[in-house]
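1st attempt posting a full record on here, be nice pls
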Amino acid sequence: MSKSPEGGGPARPLWWWERRRSALLDIGLAALAGLECAVGAYTMVGSRLHWGFPAAVTAAVLGALAGATLVVRRRWPAVPVVVALVFVPGLFGVVLLVVSLYSLAATWEWPSRRRRVVGLSALAFVESLGMVLFSFLNTEAQPGETLPPTWLFVLLAVLVAVGLTVPPVVTGLYVGARRRLVESLKDRAHGLETELDLLAEQAQERARRARLEERTRIAREMHDVVAHRVSLMVVHAGALERIVAKDPEKAQQSAKLMGEVGRQALNELREILGVLRMSETVDGHLDSLAELPRLVEQSEAAGMRVTLTVSGTRRPFSTEAEQTAYRVVQEGLTNAHKHAGGAQVAVLLAYVPNGVRVAVVNDCSGGGEKVVLPSGGNGLVGMEERVLALGGTFAAGPDEGGGFRVEAVLPSRLAVQAERLS
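the predicted structure (as tokens):
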């Protein structure tokens, strides 16, 4: 598309021409066809018919106007074809006929208007054949000359008619089909570009959601690791402050236990960071159901009255399932440290037919000194999300006896199936 003289955006279309050079081409062809038709009409009227000079001039003007119809060949392609058929009997207007037939075949949609294209083209062929054959057969032999046989005149007339009509029609059909193919490919490319933009936006949205989910998962893991260990350290620190002067030996044991708990917290943090770096864990430690006795011992060492009860036949579960069950117990013990200091706490682990069940239950008889710990209120929410994501059930709330109960059941489909013996 042509540019504006100022060098800005595309130039505005001129009437039915999309480009100015197309308008110049049509005007040039119209001038050439008009000149040929004017000369042919003047010659026929003045020399053959002998109608006088005024009639010859009038015929020349009409011929020029007929040739000028090529200006509208892109807008109304049938008009110059019909005008050319009027001048074919005079054996002139060849430029008008050839260009108009080409334009008719190239600009009209095929095959939706094939009947009109074929009909006008066939009419032009028959008329050209008839007039050329009529001209050959009316040729008079000069004295002493012998005219060629009639079949030769017929053959020459057919060749001339074919040469005037078939090549422009075939060329126009090819150019029109090629033009429509290019336009369809452009439309398809634009459609694909739009689709790719949409897919890119969807990919960005999925990436944003994945980042958000990953942040949530990391925050949940950090909470699980830090909250329990730090709660134990705070409880030990409070106890250490009270007994350091009365019982130095016990204070030393509490300080040693605080150091052990702190190292465990650091190891678990390193494991999480290692996963984030797509590397293996630091020391192969994995929070699982086999670690529950150690977890209970740590809480007991912090002064909690806690018991662990295991029932059912031990079955291995998937890594994610065992880690989730471990975190549920850990969160339940952490809440007991925060809100039920001195209460009796029971940890239950049961391998049942429909899966594995873990529960942390504390009574309401806690009369000991409570240690106030900060809480974000997200621990139980995160636990519920993790359990539900695995297809399990989760419940947390007041118990029938007045205490508090945290319970989760993970389905049996998460169990690791033993390999069958061959």
